[in-house]
Amino acid sequence: MTRSKWARGVALVGSGMSKFGSFLEKTSRDLFVEAYLDMQNSLMKDFSPEGIEAFYLGNFSSDLFEKQAHLAPILASWIGISPIASLRIEDACASGGVALRQAALAIASGQYDVVLVGGVEKMTNLSIAQVTEALATAADTQFEIPAGFTFPGFYAAMATAYMAKYKAPREAFYHVAIKNHNNGALNAKAQFNKTIFDILTSKKARAEQKGRPIPTWETEIEFLSDPKANPPIAWPMTLFDCSPVSDGGAVALLVAEEFAKDFTDNPLYLIGSGQASDGALPDRDSLSHIPAAQIAGQEAYEMAGISPKDVDFAEVHDCFTIAEIMGIEDLGFFPRGEGWKAAMSGKTSRNGEIPINTSGGLKAKGHPVGASGLGQVNEIWKQLHGKAGQRQLTGQPSIGLAHNVGGSGQTCVVNIFERRE
Amino acid sequence: MTRSKWARGVALVGSGMSKFGSFLEKTSRDLFVEAYLDMQNSLMKDFSPEGIEAFYLGNFSSDLFEKQAHLAPILASWIGISPIASLRIEDACASGGVALRQAALAIASGQYDVVLVGGVEKMTNLSIAQVTEALATAADTQFEIPAGFTFPGFYAAMATAYMAKYKAPREAFYHVAIKNHNNGALNAKAQFNKTIFDILTSKKARAEQKGRPIPTWETEIEFLSDPKANPPIAWPMTLFDCSPVSDGGAVALLVAEEFAKDFTDNPLYLIGSGQASDGALPDRDSLSHIPAAQIAGQEAYEMAGISPKDVDFAEVHDCFTIAEIMGIEDLGFFPRGEGWKAAMSGKTSRNGEIPINTSGGLKAKGHPVGASGLGQVNEIWKQLHGKAGQRQLTGQPSIGLAHNVGGSGQTCVVNIFERRE
User: Fold this and answer.
1) Of A35, A146, B327, B366, which one has the fewest beta carbons inside 10 Å?
2) CA end-to-end span of chain A, whole Å?
3) Out of A73, A88, A110, whose CB is closest to B7?
4) CA of A8, closest CA in chain B: separation in Å?
């Protein structure tokens, strides 16, 4: 059934993450340790750090954010697992997902049996101007940035192209934001552990409105349509269309399939993985989708021997709301041009056809870029183990997909996990 | 014979490098293209870029040097090989060697058959203060740098410890510099394509000295002992003990062993590979050697089923002269404390027991950090194919080793290549 070319299978036996948010007093090391300890508390048995044979770190730019490169051996030393091979993988916001894939390939090769994968980013200590400048380095700084683009600008261009091509209304994007905040409100580790209604109405105001009906999507859309509450950042992307600047860490423990049961009674299996790249925005034929995501998804489905309809839920890289809408099309969950309709009709909600970003997504959970891809994997770990609390999906999902995009789509990596009975 | 755990073997079928040096008008992209074209001109037949399935880039910090992160997909797009999976590997000055190892693991896993590995760094456009600050990020910037260390300082501490422990004279280090410049003088791609004698005596002065005997090692040592000609940088490391700040790119093409002959009649085989990490300098028991290098070397020898005496020549990471002396001990070519004697007695010269850094090493060839590890591989490619020109080793060497260190030894990777008849 599976068409994997890998010499052997890879299993996920542990997963953890720090709280995502803004923590001025914490460094990458603190966030990583928090995630690592959380991983140790996940489903494992018989875990000994001495068994870890290599460490793959996803990190976008501790160089710029903390003036610290060469971070992998430092973190390995910090948790006491030196002298194992330690390296950093960088593919902008896809660094975490790519690190996981590369660690899996190293296991598949036979070189290692047990590999720790980490992702971390510490972004909030810089000024917003400095963060904007640092994030700009994920684009083509020779051509795109001098032309005046910023990351909200890239996705604004894509949103404009998408709206024009598919006659999508501006409001479709708000539905993504509202849904992801609704999910994030049920995730204690989310940076915005709140609905948009809660964010935009102060406690006092809400108390005064006692007796008022429970907020509807219509109320929230009305809120979001008020430019005082939700100013445009790069039209048509408004404040609530953008994921936040975040600090956070996430960790995954991968092992060769044959050893999975030594670590946990309930391993997840990495049944599909795919990765692709692309040039900068001016090099692409179309701005209304992300070609690298489509290719990475196809590769992952082919390896897994499944089709999009076999996926029970997905964490989709919603750095901006338009990105989620393009993503659910690129991944084949909906035909091109139908993503916005799916978002508006609730098909991607927790009780919808294919729940997307039950964790809150990057939008509400937060987007510490190097950690985001592994934060997605943490949600898949929780949902597939029935440990997602109030946001737990019903019907015992068995296949979850993580879609992690770098920059404006120069990188995309897709990893698919399966729970087996 | 071989004890490799890899699911299949990996061969090197092409190698290229740009000229190393200071090129203010060039970017990383230019240097990479120069290396890529040089690779295309190496021994291959039937090469088509369409066959490349993934791109692994070693780069230390284009973030800081060029304000460009996410460089792997940009370079892939630049040479027209998108949408293949493209990623950057960062382990400070070991980035190139680690990228090669990770690419090899991806082939060994069965995922890819043909992988392009690149390494690049563009360092010379920054001021020396900015370069020093950028390089400092390869150390522990939370503890080591605030304590006043710079990279010459780290290696000065190691040199001092080494001298104290093994009663090595200061002059031993000069022998490394003189040898590597003698080799670099025969390498047109070296940043310093000159002997130290040539550097320290102007053309005019040399003309006036017509009839004077050919410069001896004694003459050069005398030159180097003059602090006006060779000022101390961080005692006991002087100017000529330090590798330069450089720009450069290097490229290697790796394929699954079974396809090697489709690319060239004379592939080299990656018979051994090892990688290890370590904490910062204050975490180590000893400063007179680099533990990660010893571990990486042992792992590589074990995989290859060989011992140090089977190695015909090696490129050893001589970011500072003391680093080469520690390296030849860490790799088992000489017992601990004997490296300095080997250097002084010519055992590491081209006609010595084990020729070290026939390319000129980082010292004379240059040290564009992300490219250095692949620059080493380029020398192995040339020597094993008998194409090293005036510096060609005699006796048809068949096994060459590359030793690539990150930072002050937080990372080391060793790769061993073999030519088979």
Assistant:
1) A146
2) 17
3) A110
4) 8
